[in-house]
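Lecture notes, part 5. Sequence design as translation. It can be helpful to think of inverse folding as translation between two languages: the language of shapes and the language of residues. The source text, in structure tokens, appears below.
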């Protein structure tokens, strides 16, 4: 089938769907986003036809379907990145909570239960480990399976240390403290790098998203007056939509580049 064929061209799609919490097979996911892309393309066609009253608007459908399909395909990566950021916001406190529990002699099952209750994103993965253990999977195998689908490298590092401790019977506190300290240093470096990038990004945003559109629209109106160019409402709506889209994408880029830190 077409959907199975397309799914083969997306590397690790099955793993990405698990990391994003999308409980669908790759073929089912490809089918769903393709259907959505087709429906939206038809809707865009009717919108363009309404404003332009031209049958050339039909070209919008074959042009927009692949673009929308790629956009929705990237939605998995966006969702994974969002979950990763939320995990990284909790990881330091959750890691220290885990260390205190282990050093206090609290049973590991009880620690995982408390983490599931107290940490929304990190706790979800520890809750998954407990569910697998209750269904008969060994603790080591349950941690390994959860480790493979975790989108956060920092959480994988912590789970790896816990799994090694269970396997070898060694003390995990020292190793976990080293991992947490390393994560703290990495987050501090990320904040410094973000601060250095923020000023040029703000200047670029002011230029591209505010100054250029404002002057461009003004010059367009002046030129239209002198040369007799008719600026219709559909043209103004398309220009406004384009400017809004550029501003939205730029703000999204700034927001996505902001580092995730435990606060």
């Amino acid at each position: 089938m077409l959907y199975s064929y397309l799914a083969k061209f997306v590397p690790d799609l099955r793993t990405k769907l698990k990391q994003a919490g999308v409980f669908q097979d790759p073929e089912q996911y490809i089918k769903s986003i393709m259907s959505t892309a087709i429906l939206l393309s038809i809707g865009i066609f009717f919108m363009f036809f309404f404003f332009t009253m031209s049958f050339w608007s039909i070209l919008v459908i074959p042009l927009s379907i692949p673009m929308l399909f790629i956009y929705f395909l990237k939605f998995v990566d966006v969702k994974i990145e969002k979950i990763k950021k939320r995990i990284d916001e909790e990881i330091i406190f959750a890691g220290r909570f885990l260390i205190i529990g282990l050093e206090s002699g609290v049973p590991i099952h009880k620690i995982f239960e408390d983490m599931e209750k107290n940490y929304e994103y990190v706790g979800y993965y520890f809750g998954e480990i407990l569910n697998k253990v209750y269904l008969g999977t060994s603790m080591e195998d349950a941690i390994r399976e959860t480790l493979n689908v975790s989108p956060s490298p920092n959480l994988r590092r912590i789970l790896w240390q816990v799994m090694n401790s269970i396997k070898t019977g060694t003390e995990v506190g020292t190793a976990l403290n080293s991992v947490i300290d390393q994560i703290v240093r990495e987050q501090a470096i990320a904040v410094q790098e973000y601060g250095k990038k923020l000023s040029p990004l703000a200047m670029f945003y002011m230029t591209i998203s505010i100054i250029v559109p404002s002057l461009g629209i003004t010059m367009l109106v002046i030129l239209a007056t002198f040369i007799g160019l008719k600026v219709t409402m559909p043209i103004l709506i398309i220009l406004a939509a384009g400017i809004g889209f550029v501003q939205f994408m730029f703000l999204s880029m700034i927001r996505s580049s902001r580092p995730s830190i435990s606060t």
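The translated text above is only one of many valid answers, since several sequences can fold into similar shapes. The chain has three domains: 2-73, 86-184, 193-257.
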